Amino acid sequence: MTTVQRNARIAGLLYLLLTLVAPLRLLYIPGKLFVRGDAAATAANIAANETLFRLGIMSELACGVIVLFLTFALYRLFRDVDHQLAVLVVIVGGILPAAVDFLIVLNDIAALAFVSGADYLAAFDAPQRDALAHFFMRLHGQQVLAAEVLWGIWLFPLGMLAIRSRFIPRLFGYWLIINGIAYLALSVSGLVLPQYAAWVEMVTIPALLGEVAFMLWLLIKGARERPVTAG
Q1: Rounded distance, CA 186 to CA 29, Å?
Q2: What does the CA dihedral 129, 141, 19, 155 come to, rounded to 10 degrees?
Q3: pLDDT per residue over 141-153, tens digit each?
Q4: How much is the pTM?
Q5: What is the model's pLDDT at position 224?
Q6: Where does residue 117 fall: left (phi above 0), alpha (psi -120 to 50 degrees), or beta otherwise?
Q7: Would you list the domain boundaries of the chain?
Q8: Are 171 and 221 in contact (CB under 8 A)?
Q9: Contact 127, 40 (CB under 8 A)
């Protein structure tokens, strides 16, 4: 196995780990515990499934760590293609999203504190605590929408690196760029035009498979060494 192939497989494994861990807090827990428009029911579900909710907090922290190692692996894979773009991938795709992941969990921690009804929160009655917990859950959701800007922007330099690399099919590079545009559309629709958010989510599904396709290629096929140019 060549160095390029090894670096590609490592990046693919880390990408796979990220895709396995991230949905716990982003998709599974909201679908299982959150009741839209019902703060009391949501608080009751969190209280009854506290361990699951805490696992969601840990999954976001784990995602913050994984994206750092993932983008560093991608840097090692692409640094000889374009060093500046590879560094940009680390900053926009790793360091900044990791910071967001470590800050965004504060909303869940605050919500859990209000749901638990600790003695120092006795100044708030039960409906107030439920409402505040619901507020922090909504704030978490809005911060995820804002973070999608970073999820989208980092795919532009990554896509350009894939296109220029000559060891990754160019199709994946263009698909990654389209995937980035889709994330930006999701963020804008969710924050500015929420009445169209569901429609945008449906339309962008094919574009959002770009990262999945890229990850599977790295994991299964790896990458071939760049051809040596004569002269």
Answers
A1: 20
A2: -150
A3: 999 999 999 999 9
A4: 0.90
A5: 64
A6: left
A7: 3-147+212-221
A8: no
A9: yes
Q: Which residues of 139-165 are buried (b: 16+ CB within 10 A; e: fewer)?
A: ebbeebbebbbbbbbbbbbbbbbbbeb
Average pLDDT, stretch 200-226? 89
pLDDT of residue 228 exceeding 70 = no
What 220-224 contacts at long range (C-beta under 8 Å, 24+ apart), as own/partner pairs, is: 220/12, 222/1, 222/4, 222/5, 222/6, 222/8, 222/9, 222/12, 223/4, 223/5, 223/7, 223/8, 223/77, 223/165, 223/167, 223/168, 224/2, 224/4, 224/5, 224/167
Tell me which amino acid residue 136 is.
Answer: F
Q: Is the pLDDT of residue 231 over 60?
A: no
Q: Which tokens sit at 221?
A: 């096929």
φ, ψ of residue 193 to 5 degrees: the values are -130, 65
CA 100 – CA 209 distance, rounded (Å): 23
CA distance 50 to 27: 17
Residue whose structure tokens are 């330099």? 157
CA distance 74 to 71: 5
Q: Is the pLDDT of residue 205 over 50?
A: yes
E-assigned strand segments in the chain: none
Write out the two tokens for 11.
Answer: 């990046």
Res 61 pLDDT > 90? yes
Query: Cα separation of 135 and 214, whole Å?
Result: 36
